[in-house]
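This part of the workshop introduces the protein records we will be handling. Getting from the letters to the C-alpha cells is the skill we practise here. The record below serves as our worked example for the rest of this section.

…
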Amino acid sequence: MKTNYPFYSNRKLLVLLLLFLFVIQILAFVFYENINNKSYNAMSKQLVLQHIVFLVQRLRNSNVKQQNHIINSLNNAAMQESITFIPVWATQITQQRLWQVHKVLVAQSQKLQLSLQLLNKKWLNLNVNLMPGHSSLMIFILCLEVGFFILMLFIVWLLYHYSIPLQTLREAAEEIGFNIHSAPLQSTGPEVARETYNAFNAMQNKIQLLLKERSLMLAAIAHDLKTPLTRMQLRTDFIADKEQYQNNMADIDSMNILVEQVVAYAEEESEVADVTRVDVNALVESLCHDYQDQQQAVNLNLRQEHVLMQANSVSLKRLCSNLIENAIKYAGSVDITLDADVDNIILIFDDAGPGLSSDKIKYITQAFYRVDKARNQNISGSGLGLAIVAKIVQTYRGYLTIKNRTPTGLQVKITLPKI
C-alpha cells in the first residue's frame, strides 16, 4: 500500500500558504500606502496653506511684472497658478475671507481648485493636486514584495523538482517489496538521481539473481531428493510387515510434501509475476469440487457472481488449497465464503478445530513455524503452508487476518484487490 511522501501530500496546503502570505503582504502594502497617502495628504494641505499665504504676501508687495514672474516660477505639475481679472474656479474667496482657505482645504481630498481675490481686484487662480504620486520608496517596496513572492515560488519549485527522485525511489522500493520483477527505474533527472537510480537497479538485479539461484538450487535439491525417495518407496513396497510398511510410506509422503512446499515457497515470486484476468468464483468452486470428490467436508458460500480479478491462477489456487488442507488437517472440515465489494474480493475460511492461543497466532505465518502441539500432536507438517499464503497475499498487496472463532475454531480472512 503506497503512502504519500509528506511534501507531496501537503503540496496544495503549501501553495495555499504561499498565496496567503502573498495576499497578506499585498494587503499590508495597500494599508501602508493608504496610511502614507493620508499622512501625505494632511502634510500636503498644510504646505499648500503655507504656500498660499506666502504667495499672497509676495504678490501684495509686487508690481505686475514681478507678479507674473513669481507665478511663472512657481508653476509646476502639482500646482498651477494664474492671475486673471475674473475668477476661473467656482470656489471663490475674497480678500476679506482668506481665513476660509484652510476650511476649503480640509474639505478637499484630491484636488483644490480655488480663486482668491487680491487687493488690486484681480484673482489668483490655484489648481493644486493634493494626491501624491507613487514615490520611489513605494515602488521599491512593491517590487520587493513581488520579488519575494517569485523567490518563494522558485524555492517551492526547486523542492518539488528535486523531491521527485526521492518520491520515485520510495515508490520503487515499495514496489519491489511486493514484486521483485517490477520494471527498473528510468535513468533520468539530475546526475545524483541518475546515479542513485542506477545503483537501485543494480541492487534489484542482484536480488533477482539471488532469488533465481535459490530457486534453481532448491529445484536441483528437490530433483536429487526425488530419486532416492522413489527408490525408498520401491523398496518399501517389498516390506511384508504392514505396520512398518505404513510407517515408511508416511515418512516418504511427508518428505515429498516438504520438498514440494519448499520449492513452492521459493518460486512464488516468479509465478505471481505472470497475472491474467481470473474468474475467482469458477476457480474456488472447481477447487472445492475436487476436495468434495475426495469425500472432504468442504462447503462453499458464493455471495457474489462472476468475481473477477487480476491474478495468477496457479498462485491463487495454491493459496486456497493450502488454507483448505490446513483446515481439513486440523479440524476435519472448512466453510468457505467468497464475497466482493467495489475494489476487493474477500475470502473467509472458517473451521471448527481447537483454534490457537493468542500468543501463537502472530507467528503462524512465519516460515517453518509449527504449532502442531497446540492443534493436534498426531499431525505433522512442514510449517510452510500459511507462510506461502502470507507471501501470496503480500505480493497481491492484500490483507491477511487470522483470529479464533467463538466458541471454537479458527477464521482466516483474506482481502485481495481486484486490480
About this structure: Residues 1-8, 373-377 have pLDDT under 50 and may be disordered. The chain has three domains: 1-176, 179-266, 274-417. The chain has 13 helices and eleven strands. The longest helix spans residues 11-60.
